[in-house]
Amino acid sequence: MKVIKFGGSSLANGAAFAQAIRIIQADQDRKVIVTSAPGKRESTDTKVTDLLIKYANEVLQGQAYQATVTQIFERYQAIGDYFNLPAEALAPIHKALVNLPNGNYPADSYLMATFKAHGERLNARLLAAILNHLGIKARFADPQAIGIMVTGTPNNAVVAPETYYRLQDFKVADDERVVVPGFFGFTMAGYIATFSRGGSDITGAILARGLGAEKYENFTDVDSIYAVDPKLVEHPTPIKKMTYREMRELSYAGFSVFHDEALLPVIAAGIPINVKNTWAPEKPGTLIVPDHNFQPSSPVTGIAAGKHFAALYLHKYLLNKEAGFTLQILTILQEHDVSYEHMPSGIDDITIVFDKHKLTPEIIDEICDEIQATVNPDRLEWINDFALITVVGEGMATSPTVPAEILGILAKEHIAIQMINQGASKIATMIGVDPTDTNQAIKAINHHFFN
Fold first, then answer.
1. Residue 436 DSSP label
2. pLDDT tens digits, one per residue of 181-207
3. Which string of DSSP letters, residue by residue, matches 169-219?
């Protein structure tokens, strides 16, 4: 049995639905289908999830929302009309949308999570209705009914171990397809909570592990995962096969094709993932496999970058001899519920790298003030624009020259290095640069290793 997941672009309109259905029918082993919310139909379009967020904010702010409800429903109605789906089959979708403001929400964050989750929830209902309308036996299965339980915050949930015990009792008949909405689960108290954005990948991985799938197929809008962002480099090298570790490093560093957290369930079960193009399903795509017995074909597998970082630099003489120096800083971060990404240090210096998306100007000021007062550094500097380039490859563990080659490439390009982190992972080298140098650096590194 295979679990397959379709991304938002693969379910954006009627033609995309028709292609997804052809893919489902092409393999009888594709029993469990995970849906995303309808994505953009063209570049200027709005994703349904974003419309639902708008709807939620209008409700919370006491604004008129009827026009937004109509706009959302028209997206589902247009897909239904493509298949001549009868009006009574679309009626439950419209009813669910209209009734969202009337739900029982213990806090605004739960309301927002529930509204967001309905992009996937209603799309799964729609796909199941269309499949049955076409004579393909299908069943909609809500995450609560099949046992996807979560903990954590309403809009950044994590799967609860209880889920896998519950999924053992969920059965799929030989003659049916089961359609499950991605992106969310239910708390122990029975409220909807969503995974982080793009979390339909996570649902697919949870189901693949919990149902004992032989493979998890993830259909999206690219032929494969590429060694570098196609927006930066023409004709980038496709990655035919890579390991879980490589994918996690690259996803964390900036690859947006596959959610890095989605690897955790399949890693535990050793299930291979096949990322494929919805519009070219005959192509092999990229296979993501366990790390053991993997033979890399080259030292470097991929290059990723993120420009959404900031850094706090501290200098204090003999800080390496001051017991508890780092602990005091980490305690301050914990009190403000702020996590850090990296923390390279020297005998007198330490740099703490943050994801700017998790910070506000107020939190930055408070953290800096408290650190200054608590550890009294000789110098404290906030670097608001910081980029990280990550070069990843299983072959790097046995190719000691790769970091030197990278530094040599950047030196030829006259690109200053603000940080280098190699020790934490044998398969990744991380380099901090000015964001304005990022694209030039990626192109140069890519040319060296892949051309």
1. G
2. 999 999 999 999 999 877 899 999 999
3. T----TT-EEEEE-SEEE-TTS-EEE-STTTHHHHHHHHHHHTT-SEEEEE
Q: Which residues, other chains included, contact 109 with Cβ-Cβ below 8 Å and sequence gap of 6+?
A: 153, 154, 155
Residues 6+ apart with CB under 8 A from 320: 345, 346, 347, 348
d(CA 266, CA 109): 29
380 vs 247: CA distance, rounded Å:
35
Q: Does residue 435 sit in helix, strand or coil?
A: helix
**How far is the C-alpha of 148 from the C-alpha of 124, rounded, in Å?**
15
Q: Which two tokens stand for residue 372?
A: 């200054």
Average pLDDT over residues 26-45: 97
Nearest to 49 by CA among 21, 5, 87, 8: 8
Per the DSSP assignment, residues forming a β-bridge with 430 are: 390, 421
What Cα–Cα distance (Å) separates residue 444 from each residue in 83, 167, 405, 414, 441? Answer: 49, 47, 11, 11, 5
> Both tokens of residue 36?
């995303």
**Both structure tokens of 444:** 């140069």
311-345 tens-digit pLDDT: 999 999 988 888 899 999 999 999 999 999 888 88
Contact predicate 119/48, CB 8 Å: yes
Return the pLDDT at 423: 62
Residue 137 carries which side chain, given as an amino acid letter? K
Kindly state the tokens that stand for 168.
């053992």
Q: How far apart are CA 4 and CA 211, in angstroms?
A: 12
Count of other CB atoms within 10 angstroms of residue 57: 16
Tokens of 222: 């690219």
What phi, psi does 47 have (nearest 5°)? -65, 145
Here the tokens at position 385 are 């624009």
CA–CA dist 21, 15 (Å, integer): 10
Confidence of residue 263 (pLDDT cuts 50, 70, 90): confident
Task: Provide CB contacts within 8 A for 280, sequence distance 6+.
Answer: 223
What is the rounded distance in angstroms from the CA atom of residue 182 to the CA atom of residue 143? Answer: 8
> What string of DSSP letters covers 230-265?
TTTSSSPPEESEEEHHHHHHHHHHT--SS-GGGHHH
Cα distance between residue 251 and residue 258, in whole Å: 7
pLDDT in tens, 232-243: 999 999 999 999
- How far apart CA 79 and CA 215 sit, in angstroms, is 29
The span from the CA of 275 to the CA of 7, in Å, is: 11
